[in-house]
Design goal:
The structure holds 2 protein chains of 2 kinds. By secondary structure, chain A is mainly beta. Helices cover 0% and strands 53% of the residues of chain A. Chain B is 0% helix and 51% strand. Classes of the chains: A mainly beta, B mainly beta.
Chain lengths: 113, 113
């Protein structure tokens, strides 16, 4: 079992839908949780970053962390075709001070007009 | 600022050839790393560096060498390319004291025949 599990999709939704993307993990030492967005043939870019449990909101995006369940989510409200991309979750814990992140395999999201 | 710059963007090699993928960042980041991304496998860490003169192995280091003589540059060397090294390679950097928030390059697509 990988440390971080993420359904690869694809997840196809109509424009305007609320999208829920999720990851589960097994390492209870993870403290930092991130979501990256990767457009086709581009490098990943950091979308959301949270520490420990709780919610964080940024515009149409909300990141949620439930450490008791080892489960993180990214919600996208009023989804747009421009949100079509692969979303990778990542998480990290202190490891000799280098905080090396572990990535999920990514979920492909398609928002159709 | 250019951020993280990778060259070349595309490369085709024959089995047994050697080459170097270049990575440079202008953000004065201490931490740099190399990932490969394959379909269904997500991002896998090859090598990383926490500062000039310091490198360490990641999850899939075999067949790759790195060095870090300056803060800005972190080249990845393939000494004898194999078809299994056909992949998309990403360089990423972050502030050492940061917590896994990585800045990625645009990627280098390598095909080994």
């Amino acid at each position: 079992q990988k440390e971080v599990e993420q359904d690869p999709g694809p997840l196809s939704v109509p424009e305007g839908a609320i999208v829920s993307l999720n990851c589960t993990y097994s390492n209870s030492a993870f403290q930092y949780f991130m979501w990256y967005r990767q457009y086709s043939r581009k490098g990943p870019e950091l979308l959301m970053y949270t520490y420990s449990s709780g919610n964080k909101e940024d515009g149409r995006f909300t990141a949620q962390v439930d450490k008791s369940s080892k489960y993180i989510s990214l919600f996208i409200r009023d989804s747009q075709p421009s949100d079509s991309a692969t979303y990778l979750c990542a998480m990290s814990a202190a490891a000799g001070g280098s905080y090396i992140p572990t990535f999920g395999r990514g979920t492909s999201l398609i928002v159709h007009p | 600022n250019a951020g993280v710059t990778q060259t070349p963007k595309f490369q085709v090699l024959k089995t047994g050839q050697s080459m170097t993928l270049q990575c440079a960042q202008d953000m004065n980041h201490e931490y740099m790393s190399w990932y490969r991304q394959d379909p269904g496998m997500g991002l896998r860490l090859i090598h990383y560096s926490v500062g000039a003169g310091i490198t360490d192995q990641g999850e899939v280091p075999n067949g790759y060498n790195v060095s870090r003589s300056t803060t800005e540059d972190f080249p990845l060397r393939l000494l004898s390319a194999a078809p299994s090294q056909t992949s998309v390679y990403f360089c990423a950097s972050s502030l050492r004291e940061n917590t896994g928030e990585l800045f990625f390059g645009e990627g280098s697509r390598l095909t080994v025949l």
